[in-house]
Amino acid sequence: MALIVQKFGGTSVGNIERIKKVADRIIETKKQGHDVIVVVSAMSGETDKLLNMAYQITDTPDGRELDMLLATGEQVSIALLAMALQAKGQDARSFTGQQVRIITDSAHTKARIREIDSERIFRELNQGKVVVVAGFQGIDENGEITTLGRGGSDTTGVAIAAAIGADICEIYTDVDGVYTTDPHIVPEARKLSRISYDEMLEMASLGAKVLQIRSVAFAKKYNVPIHVRSSFKKEEGTLVIQEDSSMEDIVVTGIAHTKNEVKITIKGIPDRPGIAAKLFEAIARDNINVDMIIQNTSDNGLADISFTISKEDGKKALKLTEEIGKELGATKVLFDPNIAKVSAIGVGMRNHVGVAAKVFQALAKEDINILMISTSEIRISCVVEAKYGEQAVRALHDAFDLANKKS
Amino acid sequence: MALIVQKFGGTSVGNIERIKKVADRIIETKKQGHDVIVVVSAMSGETDKLLNMAYQITDTPDGRELDMLLATGEQVSIALLAMALQAKGQDARSFTGQQVRIITDSAHTKARIREIDSERIFRELNQGKVVVVAGFQGIDENGEITTLGRGGSDTTGVAIAAAIGADICEIYTDVDGVYTTDPHIVPEARKLSRISYDEMLEMASLGAKVLQIRSVAFAKKYNVPIHVRSSFKKEEGTLVIQEDSSMEDIVVTGIAHTKNEVKITIKGIPDRPGIAAKLFEAIARDNINVDMIIQNTSDNGLADISFTISKEDGKKALKLTEEIGKELGATKVLFDPNIAKVSAIGVGMRNHVGVAAKVFQALAKEDINILMISTSEIRISCVVEAKYGEQAVRALHDAFDLANKKS
């Protein structure tokens, strides 16, 4: 007998028929003798509907009131799912974030979970009930309703699993697992049976939208095994777990890619200590996250700096860079929105040499020019022209034979 | 400067445009220097939409889960209204029933308010904020979400007004006050400027749907003046207040009428002590409310009993009566759904004689046969054939000159 958290996303509870199917799935698990805690999102479309009403009133809704509004979406789902379970003869009870005391900080619309009171959950489980908890929401110390940001229900699921010491947190979604790369780009992409937290974090932050990145970080911190699987199919999905030695045999686990960045280049600035600091301090002050940075120096004592940031911060960062450029006497500031970042990810890189070279060769073979490079212990990323992005993904997937290797 | 509770019904906050208009109205009151606490219902149609989803899942949804579901309707309204107030420059905050601790008993879907913590409300008012509270909902002692039943937001408004000692509870609705009778039946019906709690209770229980009856009983108990008025017009509506001596000059204040009852007659039962008790005990055991009862005896030692009950209990009561009738050897059980009850209501009746006679004469003049009669200290009710119901209302409205008298 195991203690299992099952999280169902908005598509899985998108209408009454689907809610009934989810109830069947939960009851199946319960009948196998397990204790089940369920976390649900709002019915798909509901959060957007609520947001749309808010924005009809004001462009800048107050965070507290927005959370008050959005938290209703999950409250509807949990009540309906509890009813569906009861209607099928399974005793069940729904709980808001407030009722199971999911305590967060007070950062409305992007709150972070601090603690969860597991006592209430265990009391209900001990009576044979399925416990249905609203995802995405909590309360702060003053009893104000908070929400965790988009995808926050994943984090709720993992946080509850951590708080009650669950054996596993199953994340049911509309894809059937984590793939070696985006199957829309590479049809022979293979579903991974296992992936480590660190690899998943790199995959998630690079645009594989299967799991919310914060939930993976949470799972890693508390060592909660996650099972990502389809709501609509029976077969197993992908386990996201602590790295073990067998994983190191695989050099590259997956290829991620994103088109969501832009590149800014500032040319002809003095090559002196403190110049780069001045630029990136200004950008950090505006809460803009810089991803990759490269600097070249030339013989005339001047330097060029290029960096990438997310598309949404692009305009703001360009303006800032132009201002600083004027101060520093830069010769030029360039803005390039047509880039793609392609990454090879795998914990095996730690113990294998020549991975970078293999990446560069694979791209060179396709005549794809590399604009920027960055690496971490388990990742090699290359920025290329946007039009070569998908071609680069296919080349790397092929070079590391990901369609065939077993993870 | 006054302390004012303003309650807005579902129609008043039925869409975004109306919510903005309600915000204007609140700000107007606030600008006059008053402190304002607002109670809102769910947007019109919302509660039915939620109920409909529940009934797609099961015919018998659990009360606790139904309350969990329905409470979201008001939570959406309060958040949107608070945003609308803020967008217009008025500081405001929304609160669920849980957050201002509207403590109820645990009777899900028809809970009764036990107490309200006014401390939180005053803290916000003292900071110059408009306090927006979700109507219809509360929590029980275990923190379970409860709802107060249809029209419960009126009761929330009055209960909050009582708890904080408000000067008045304004109920904004889609009619502009309480009329001497239904204007659809008598076009010259007049809007009353004042009516006593007791009269309003009689009017409400007889089918004048302006105010939820429980809210009036609450207002009477705590002596909270209610002002029923239109959300869409500026002019004053009707004050529902404690009876004063001037009201006694008016013999009849209004004419109420309902078609929502049926009549059951059991004939030829033994005219012995305890027979009626046996019948009505059985009916009470099934939670059926009996309204009027009359008993005739004949020379042969047998009796006939007629009584009225609400239409929805009709079938159940008929079945019960037939069973008891068999036991008692009744000769016949009759069922009459075609009745109407017409009532003249006024606190002045206490000090005036001949009111009943005037009622009977007015009906006789129209050749309307009276089937049953019942009276209270401030009411005379007659059951007539359904087809004469509206004619009877017009006759009584006319007989007491209600179109002209000033209340």
Q: Please report the number of helical segments of chain A.
A: 11
What is the fourth-level CATH superfamily of the largest domain in chain A?
Answer: Acetylglutamate kinase-like
The top-level CATH class of the largest domain in chain A is: Alpha Beta
Q: Gyration radius of chain A, to the nearest Å?
A: 24 Å
Oligomeric state of this protein: homodimer
Mean pLDDT of chain A: 92
Strand proportion of chain A, as a percent range, falls in 25-35%
The parts of chain A where pLDDT drops under 50 for at least 5 residues are none
Number of strands of chain A: 20
> Between the first and last Cα atoms of chain A, what is the distance in angstroms?
28 Å
- Give the strand order of the largest sheet of chain A, numbering strands 1, 2, ... along the chain: 3-6-2-1-9-11-12-10
As a percent range, the share of helical residues of chain A equals 25-40%
| Annotated CATH topology of the largest domain in chain A | Carbamate kinase
Which protein chains make the most extensive interface, counting residues with beta carbons within 8 Å of the other chain's beta carbons? A-B, 35 and 35 residues
What is the approximate shape of chain A? Answer: globular
CATH architecture classification of the largest domain in chain A: 3-Layer(aba) Sandwich
Q: Structural class of chain A, please?
A: alpha/beta
Work out the count of structural domains of chain A.
2
Question: In this structure, how is the largest beta sheet of chain A organized?
Answer: 8 strands, mixed
